[in-house]
Design goal:
- The chain has 386 residues and is an alpha/beta fold.
- It has two domains: 4-155, VC0802-like (2-Layer Sandwich); 177-216 and 248-372, Vaccinia Virus protein VP39 (Rossmann fold).
- It is built from eleven helices and 14 strands.
- A seven-stranded mixed sheet has the order 2-3-1-4-7-6-5.
- Helix 2 crosses helix 7 (235-247), helix 3 runs parallel beside helix 4 (108-126) and helix 5 (177-185) packs across helix 6 (204-213).
- The longest helix is centred in the first third of the chain and has 19 residues, at 108-126.
């Protein structure tokens, strides 16, 4: 079976998390760069990656890479790529996205137009057609220029992978599912530890954590563009990948995952989303203010995305809110807290310097992932065999 180079993009700074996910799926990493991980896989890998990866936005199939400093070079080198290997006679193809960094060719619309003409030219010659119908499956192409080197890929995912299919009800400014998963995976949290999100909004952190605890693949409840490409990934491959993912689910896993918010509409959305994800029985959602946050057991985790004070009228409330977060956290017995925020005085108002701090771009917004580490619980003693 043919081996492809697949590229999985991710948030800057979270490449190591994605790399581990890909290795856990059993595929070989060929390159790790800022904001993306490249790995080698066959057709089954396309299905496994789309269904199973929690922290990438999409899975791209690399068609080729070349240097181009002029539009003539772009045309000729795009035309030289073996498009007929991927796009059938009636395939609908277009360059859906072009970006350019430190390159002489920088106009997205011109890059898109020229590449489309070059592809049509080659496919027309190969298929002996002066006109291509383009009434079949979709083949969106993405190209990125870095220092005049173009990387050309087919998008196998279609709709971004952060759209798992469960978030039917939304509230303002939710964190994406892929980023939430990556942030959880950056912590030592495991399914036998308590997890509380005191600003749960539409429930993304608790839902993603519950899916991890039950070993539920994030892409099981949605479709992917490459399912329309049977010449590359057969329906049997997709079914086998889904069946294997379903077999790995732990339906009876016991967890303590809680989501709090003071907004009734947010809680309504969170419960509906958890039900859609199939994890509503694993999460306790409750209307509760952060000042009332308490738990009788030690060694728990807070993982949360509190308000940032994005709007001018909200900024004055931030110091008191973060002081309250700090006070509630200090009252918990040997807990850890992981908090993503763009509020720059978070540590000062919480009243404690974070043990670790990671800068992460959430969209175009610079945020900080503050990590306040509690002690590890003692190891459970092994009972002697009788």
């Amino acid at each position: 079976m043919e081996i492809y180079e697949l590229i999985a993009p991710c948030h800057f700074g979270l490449e190591a998390v994605l790399k581990k996910e890909i290795l856990d799926l059993g595929y070989e990493i060929s390159r790790v760069e800022d904001g993306k991980v490249t790995f080698l896989a066959d057709a089954r890998g396309i299905a496994d990656a789309n269904i199973g990866l929690r922290t990438t936005e999409r899975v791209l199939l690399k068609v080729g890479e070349f240097r181009a400093e002029t539009f003539d070079e772009l045309f000729e080198k795009t035309k030289a790529l073996p498009w007929e290997k991927y796009i059938p006679k009636n395939g609908r193809f277009w360059v859906t996205k072009a970006n350019s960094v430190k390159s002489k060719l920088f106009s997205p619309s011109d890059i898109q137009s020229i590449m489309k003409k070059a592809m049509a030219d080659r496919l027309g010659q190969v298929y002996h057609q002066s006109w291509l119908p383009e009434d079949g499956a979709e083949f969106p192409i993405r190209v990125s220029f870095m220092k005049d080197v173009a990387t050309v890929c087919l998008d196998t995912s279609g709709v971004s992978l952060h759209k798992r299919g469960y978030r039917q009800m939304k509230v303002k400014a939710p964190i994406t599912e892929t980023l939430a998963s990556a942030l959880i995976l950056l912590t030592p949290w495991r399914r036998d530890r308590i997890l509380v999100d005191p600003f749960c909004g539409s429930g993304t952190f608790p839902i993603e954590a519950a899916m991890m605890a039950a070993n539920m693949a994030p892409g099981l409840n949605r479709s992917f563009l490459a399912e329309q490409w049977p010449h590359l990934v057969s329906p049997e491959i997709w079914e086998d990948a889904r069946e294997e993912a379903r077999d790995l689910i732990l339906p009876d896993v016991q967890v303590d995952i809680q989501g709090y918010d003071i907004d009734d509409e947010a809680l309504k959305a969170a419960r509906a989303n958890a039900k859609m994800a199939g994890v509503e029985h694993m999460i306790h959602f409750q209307r509760r203010d952060v000042k009332d946050l308490h738990h009788p057991k030690p060694y728990g985790f807070i993982i949360t995305n509190p308000p940032y004070g994005e709007r001018l009228e909200d900024k004055s409330a931030m110091p008191e809110l973060y002081r309250t977060i700090g006070k509630s956290f200090s009252g918990l017995d040997r807990w850890s807290m992981f908090l993503i925020t763009a509020y720059e005085n978070a540590e000062k108002d919480i009243g404690r310097k974070a043990d670790r701090n990671r800068k992460i771009y959430n969209g175009m917004m610079k945020t900080y992932y503050y990590q306040f580490l509690g002690p590890r619980p003692p190891r459970k003693e092994q009972k002697p065999e009788i």
